Amino acid sequence: GTTGRLTPVKGHRHLIDAAGNIVAARPNTTFVFIGDGELSDELKNMASKLGLKEKVKYLGWRPDVAEVMSVFDLFVLPSLNEGMGRVLVEAMALGKPIVASDVGGIHDLVVHGKNGCLVPSGDAEHLSAAISDLIEHPEKRKIMGDNGKIIAAEYSADAMVQKIDQLYRTMLQQK
Question: Which of the residues 82, 101, 115, 166 could staple to 147 if both were Cys, CB 3.0 to 4.6 A apart?
Fold first, then answer.
């Protein structure tokens, strides 16, 4: 039978599982969660049980997400069933390499091996391996981050206005 609970779109549980493996190998690693989450208490309990209480921080909703993200080495979006999010564009614009689940429209923004790594949804092992790889290779993070800035620029407000303007001009010429 079902428990009546909806499956969350965010795979944060899998990220906490992955965090356990990563912190075991690299004790100076810290994971930061930003945003309101109905699962935060459950995730805090899970992190505590895995001995990660000091390594997993929950900042809740923040008005200064860009400032907070600017100090990250990389950005992880472990979604289970989500389209491309504005937050990905923001992280890429800040030059952060991305580790994300290969679901929905995410692959439209994250090109595996170019500006980040795509991993199977709900797979803590692949998530852990991708994050570990980027932690170990700062030069790879830099290249992917720089590539992400270029891709993010295509999704800026100015770029979108120009694309819409061009579309209108093309439609008017066809009349």
Answer: 115
